[in-house]
Amino acid sequence: MFSQIGCASCHVPTMTTGNNPVAALSNQRVNLFSDLLLHAMGAGLADGIEQGRAKGDEFRTAPLWGLSRRDRFMHDGGSNTIEKAILRHGGDARDRFGELSPADHDALLAFLDSL
């Protein structure tokens, strides 16, 4: 479900580290669930703060590893459940999440709660 509804397009499940003089850190697979890129999240999430190249509605994709250990979500901590955070996203992923069957909805939330 995570990939099917589009979450994995920004929250990329696995990345590989670059070359590093420390062998243990070099070319390692990391289940980060992020692309670490800036994305325009729309006026509904805009905070007007510009930082570096990030405009007021752009945010770096938050890594989802450790998601189950958090009690606040999104860049501003304004969501207190994973579901509320998903629903605050703009666009297709939010819409597809809302169209899930109850079983798929629960399966996706269980998966996210396992991270």
Describe it:
This protein has 115 residues and is an alpha+beta fold. The protein is 23% helix and 9% strand. It is built from 3 helices and 4 strands. It has helices spanning 82-88, 92-98, 102-113, and strands at residues 15-16, 29-30, 38-40, 58-60. The strands form 2 sheets. The chain has a two-stranded antiparallel ribbon. Strands 3-4 form a two-stranded antiparallel sheet. It is globular. The mean pLDDT is 91.
Question: What are the key terms here?
Answer:
115 residues; alpha+beta; two-stranded antiparallel sheet; 4 strands; 23% helix
In brief, what are we looking at here?
The protein is an alpha+beta fold and 115 residues long. The chain has helices at residues 82-88, 92-98, 102-113, and strands spanning 15-16, 29-30, 38-40, 58-60.
Could you spell the SSE succession in H and E letters? EEEEHHH
Apparent shape = globular
CA gyration radius, whole angstroms: 15 Å
Q: What is the count of DSSP helices, taking H or I runs of 4+ residues?
A: 3
Mean pLDDT across all amino acids: 91
**DSSP helix fraction:** 10-25%
The description of the largest β-sheet is:
2 strands, antiparallel
Strand composition percent: 5-15%
Q: What's the total count of β strands?
A: 4
Query: Order of strands in the sheet with the most strands?
Result: 1-2
- Overall structural class, as computed from helix and strand content, comes to alpha+beta
Low-confidence region ranges? none
